[in-house]
């Protein structure tokens, strides 16, 4: 049994994490963290969880958390998260970090895309990236996991098999992604205010979104296993906000290479995920509803007018955040990887 603490339990990823942990036979939730001093009952913050946990959200010190928990999930904004992670790790608490703080490889790149210094830069480049389908061996038994970004999960799971099979060029990859509004979190923002986003569809972060270097780095790592001389991959990534609650759909375009045909593209996707419990290569372009509320990713690929075209879907809050976090937690702690996720 692992005793679990959740930082940022009042947010959307905290809620989804609690829904999953409520049915986890080896996890006991022992601390729910908030910055507020009022200690509200969990059912006041998330009425969906009424009857599931008799717990209050508390403003505890890291020492108090370390007494109560073996593992912490940090569902906090970036920078705030790394500060807590460093303190927890120094007290022997394992951490799954849902923020972006440990996903990039070096402090310079982090500063360039996040606009501030990294609070715990020594761990950059050394923390396993929590996509078990690509980095399972590094995740097993680790103390800290960088849980992936939601958009990167959808892009990397679609592209990596084709890069590894030599069916697409490393240059000229375009990732066009669309996300439901819960991707922006529960904390109110102008972009996600109802009259701003309802019945509207917009691109944002054009050329500047911080998931671009994350996708670059992970694709470069995942596909560069034999040829160290390869140049780093640089994708063109554009996110869009769709007026729906949840889900991400990425449409991806790449230049074919070698024997890229509709059949060989699908065969590479099928082979890569044949034994994966949560990723499937599907025969027709998937929709977000096919994976809503699940830890699954569906990928489809073909060749059209001289381009490889991929479509990938996930639930941003599950495979894109809390489901992946539980998958990583299971691997870190030696539980069956699929526990609480089937
Ligand atoms: N939403 C999504 O689809 C995804 C989110 N993520 C990442 O997961 C993390 C959590 O996201 P999400 O749950 O959506 O966010 P939310 O805004 O829904 O919740 C975050 C919680 O963190 C606490 N918080 C906010 N600001 C601070 C701060 N400055 N210092 C400490 N605590 C703070 C708040 O709790 P309180 O007020 O009670 O203290 C808040 O409820 C973020 O890093 C996000 O980028 C990753 C993948 C997907
Ligand atoms: C719709 C929307 O706003 N989505 C979020 C992505 C959520 C996510 O994965 O964020 P982190 O990398 O910070 O963990 C965004 O674009 O900022």
From TrEMBL:
PROSITE patterns: ARGC. Pfam families: Semialdhyde_dh, Semialdhyde_dhC_1. Residues 3-142 form the Semialdehyde dehydrogenase NAD-binding domain. Keywords: Amino-acid biosynthesis, Arginine biosynthesis, Cytoplasm, NADP, Oxidoreductase. GO terms for molecular function: N-acetyl-gamma-glutamyl-phosphate reductase activity; NAD binding; NADP+ binding. InterPro entries: AGPR, AGPR_AS, AGPR_dimerisation_dom, AGPR_type-1, NAD(P)-bd_dom_sf, Semialdehyde_DH_NAD-bd. It is found in: Cytoplasm. One of its GO terms (biological process) is L-arginine biosynthetic process. Pathway: Amino-acid biosynthesis; L-arginine biosynthesis; N(2)-acetyl-L-ornithine from L-glutamate: step 3/4. GO terms for cellular component: cytoplasm. Its EC number is 1.2.1.38. The active site is at 150. It catalyses: N-acetyl-L-glutamate 5-semialdehyde + phosphate + NADP(+) = N-acetyl-L-glutamyl 5-phosphate + NADPH + H(+). HAMAP family: ArgC_type1. Catalyzes the NADPH-dependent reduction of N-acetyl-5-glutamyl phosphate to yield N-acetyl-L-glutamate 5-semialdehyde. Belongs to the NAGSA dehydrogenase family. Type 1 subfamily. This is N-acetyl-gamma-glutamyl-phosphate reductase.
């Amino acid at each position: 049994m692992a005793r679990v603490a959740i930082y940022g339990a009042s947010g959307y990823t905290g809620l989804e994490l609690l829904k999953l942990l409520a049915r986890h036979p080896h996890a006991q939730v022992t601390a729910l963290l908030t910055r507020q001093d009022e200690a509200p009952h969990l059912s006041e913050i998330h009425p969906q969880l009424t009857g599931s946990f008799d717990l209050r959200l508390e403003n505890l010190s890291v020492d108090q958390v370390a007494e109560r928990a073996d593992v912490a999930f940090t569902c906090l904004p970036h920078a705030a998260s790394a500060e807590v992670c460093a303190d927890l790790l120094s007290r022997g608490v394992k951490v799954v970090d849902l923020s972006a703080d440990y996903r990039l490889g070096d402090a310079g790149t982090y500063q360039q895309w996040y606009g501030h210094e990294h609070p715990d830069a020594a761990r950059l480049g050394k923390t396993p990236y929590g996509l078990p389908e690509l980095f399972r061996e590094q995740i097993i038994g680790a103390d800290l996991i960088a849980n992936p970004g939601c958009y990167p999960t959808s892009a990397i799971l679609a592209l990596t098999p084709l890069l590894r099979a030599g069916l697409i060029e490393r240059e000229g990859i375009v990732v066009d992604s669309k996300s439901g509004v819960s991707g922006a979190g529960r904390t109110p923002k102008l972009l996600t205010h109802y009259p701003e986003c309802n019945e509207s569809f917009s691109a944002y972060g054009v050329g500047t979104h911080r998931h671009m270097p994350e996708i670059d780095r992970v694709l470069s790592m995942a596909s560069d296993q034999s040829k160290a001389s390869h140049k780093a991959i640089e994708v063109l990534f554009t996110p869009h906000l769709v007026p729906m609650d949840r889900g991400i759909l990425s449409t991806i375009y790449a230049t074919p290479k070698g024997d890229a045909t509709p059949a060989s593209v699908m065969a590479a996707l099928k082979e890569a995920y044949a034994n994966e419990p949560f990723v499937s290569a599907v025969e027709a372009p998937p929709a977000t509803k096919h994976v809503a509320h699940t830890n699954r990713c569906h990928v489809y690929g073909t060749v059209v007018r001289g381009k490889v075209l991929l479509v990938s879907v996930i639930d941003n809050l599950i495979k894109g955040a809390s489901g992946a976090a539980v998958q990583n937690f299971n691997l870190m702690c030696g539980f069956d990887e699929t526990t609480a996720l089937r």
